[in-house]
């Protein structure tokens, strides 16, 4: 079992969600986050005074998946979140030791 | 004294009073949009509270201090009208106001709305750090010690008016007066925590644009109402109140685009307000293209004046000094160039650029502006010092971090 974490552009969230549903994903967790990468911040001007805003708003998506699902999920995210402009985001995958569904007590892949 | 009520004039001043009253909530939104989200209610509160406290003080005492014994060429009025004694539905008992064709009680109400917004203008400079109790005491005493005397000297035939200075709707009484007080108070309370390093962007510029619209709308009553009649002078004042802010907006945006690379929404709003300020003393005295020249100059100069605070290292949070003090001074001085007897017979010394004009009015305007600035600054500074040392005029650093809304008023503007 793996945890897939993707940080994407906020306006791409709907497209990514639809693509994930189409790929058979049963559930995702979404968080509004901010940070910086190669796409640095931006500059704002108020009454002649310039301010640099270092952090860019992004959306973080987390998906629990069985090992066999990983490739189609990653393909779905990359295809739907890509604009080919700087700041499209990243995806990373981490191993998950255990998963349990709270309602039924199911464990392991059955709980995903 | 014979009193002939004119219903047209009375109707216009009734309406103008309501228009000017609406400016204070407009100012609240103009300023409120520019502060951080954790301090927006405190800003709205300071302004709305001014409507509560100052209206009562005006009726109790300050109207009398300002307009008692009018035409005495002096420094202050008297106590003839305290608690609105002899201020009624008939005309003014003052010989000086025998030209009025509106009830004296209406004149009192109209002037009250000016007395309310003037101290409220200060709150932009002191944003994000003023202690509410200290503020309340400050504006109350300021109305008595500063506004009353200055209004008397300029609006009620006191010595500045007697000398020959002109101020149609409050370039000196309202804008130089409030601007100088704002400078004094920020020097006493110091800079916002984190200033100038920390980024403190406006939290809601749509509020600021909304406030600008309300101010402009209300300013029609402020300037055209100051004719105290529904006549040609009021009509001239009204178009000037549209043209000058329009030209000021263009002037501000032009310099801003050139200097910082963008024409901003905040710049359009700020430029328009600078134009409203600058045309205030001139509104019923200038005509033709003069309001456009005055407005354009104000837009450019007030934008450049934004640098004053960085140069002298004081923290005027929302640029009250650049917009109101500099704008008020500009309007008052520029009146000395364009005041025109063909527009208003009150102008006995035409401005320098007008036929048969001279420098006499210019000198009077400079003296009246200087006196207002120095008097307001000195008294405001002492008053702020005394309140700062007793009640306190600034919140604690912890309260400033939490935000004034929660720390002072136990409220938050926006739920998460």
Strand content of chain B: under 5%
For this structure, the CATH topology of chain B is Ammonium transporter fold
The CATH architecture of chain A can be named as 2-Layer Sandwich
The CATH class of chain B is Mainly Alpha
Average per-residue pLDDT of chain B, rounded, comes to 96
Q: In words, what does this structure look like?
A:
The complex is a heterodimer of chains A (112) and B (416). Chain A is α+β, with helices and mostly antiparallel strands and 112 residues long. Chain A has a single domain, classed as Alpha-Beta Plaits, CATH 3.30.70.120. Chain A has helices spanning 13-22, 70-81, and strands spanning 2-8, 29-35, 42-46, 49-53, 56-65, 89-95. The longest helix of chain A is centred in the last third of the chain and has 12 residues, at 70-81. Chain A is elongated. The mean pLDDT of chain A is 93. By secondary structure, chain B is mainly α. Chain B has a single domain, classed as Ammonium transporter AmtB like domains (Ammonium transporter fold). Helices cover 64% and strands 0% of the residues of chain B. Chain B has 15 helices and no strands. The radius of gyration of chain B is 20 Å and the shape is globular. The N and C termini of chain B lie far apart (63 Å). Chain A binds chain B through residues 44-53, and chain B through 199, 201-202, 256, 259-262, 264, 266-267, 270, 303, 306-307, 319.
């Amino acid at each position: 079992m793996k945890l897939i974490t993707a940080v994407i552009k906020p306006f791409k969230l709907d497209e990514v969600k639809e693509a994930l549903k189409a790929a058979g994903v049963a559930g995702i967790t979404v968080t509004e986050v901010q940070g910086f990468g190669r796409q640095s911040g931006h500059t704002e001007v108020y009454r002649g005074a310039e301010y640099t805003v270092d952090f860019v708003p992004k959306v973080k998506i987390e998906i629990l998946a069985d090992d066999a699902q990983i490739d189609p999920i990653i393909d779905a995210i990359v295809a739907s979140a890509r604009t080919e402009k700087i700041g499209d985001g990243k995806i990373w995958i981490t191993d998950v030791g255990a998963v349990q569904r709270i309602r039924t007590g199911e464990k392991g892949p059955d709980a995903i | 004294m014979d009193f002939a009520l004119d219903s047209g004039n009375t109707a216009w001043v009734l309406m103008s009073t309501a228009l000017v009253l609406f400016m204070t909530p407009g100012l609240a939104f103009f300023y409120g949009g520019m502060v951080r989200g954790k301090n927006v209610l405190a800003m709205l509160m300071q302004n709305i509270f001014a409507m509560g406290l100052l209206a009562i003080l005006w009726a109790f005492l300050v109207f009398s201090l300002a307009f008692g014994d009018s035409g005495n060429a002096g420094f202050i009025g008297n106590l003839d009208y305290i608690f609105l004694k002899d201020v009624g539905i008939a005309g003014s008992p003052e010989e000086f106001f025998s030209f009025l064709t509106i009830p004296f009680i209406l004149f009192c109400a109209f002037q009250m709305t000016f007395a309310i917004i003037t101290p409220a203008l200060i709150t932009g400079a002191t944003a994000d750090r003023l202690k509410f109790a200290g503020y309340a005491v400050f504006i109350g005493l300021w109305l008595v010690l500063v506004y009353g005397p200055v209004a008397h000297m300029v609006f009620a035939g006191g010595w500045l008016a007697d000398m020959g200075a002109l101020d149609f709707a409050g370039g000196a009484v309202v804008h130089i007066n409030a601007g100088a007080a704002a400078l004094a108070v920020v020097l006493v309370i110091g800079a916002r925590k984190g200033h100038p390093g920390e980024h403190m962007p406006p939290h809601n510029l749509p509020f600021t644009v909304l406030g600008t619209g309300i101010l402009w709308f209300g300013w029609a009553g402020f300037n055209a109402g100051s004719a105290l009649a529904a006549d040609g002078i009021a009509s001239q004042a009204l178009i000037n109140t549209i043209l000058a802010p329009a030209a000021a907006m263009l002037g501000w945006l032009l310099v801003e685009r050139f200097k910082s690379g963008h024409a901003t929404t905040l710049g359009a709003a700020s430029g328009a307000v600078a134009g409203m300020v600058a045309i205030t003393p001139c509104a019923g005295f200038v005509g033709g293209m003069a309001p456009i020249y005055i407005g354009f100059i104000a837009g450019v100069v007030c934008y450049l004046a934004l640098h004053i605070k960085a140069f002298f290292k004081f923290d005027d949070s929302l640029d009250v000094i650049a917009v109101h003090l500099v704008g008020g001074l500009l309007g008052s001085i520029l009146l000395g160039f364009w005041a025109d007897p063909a527009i208003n017979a009150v102008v006995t010394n035409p401005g320098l650029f007008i036929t048969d004009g001279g420098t006499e009015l210019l000198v009077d305007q400079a003296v009246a502006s200087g006196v207002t600035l120095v008097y307001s600054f000195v008294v405001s500074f002492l008053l702020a010092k005394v309140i700062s040392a007793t009640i306190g005029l600034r919140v604690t650093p912890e309260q400033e971090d939490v935000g004034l809304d929660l720390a002072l008023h136990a409220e938050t503007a926006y739920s998460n």
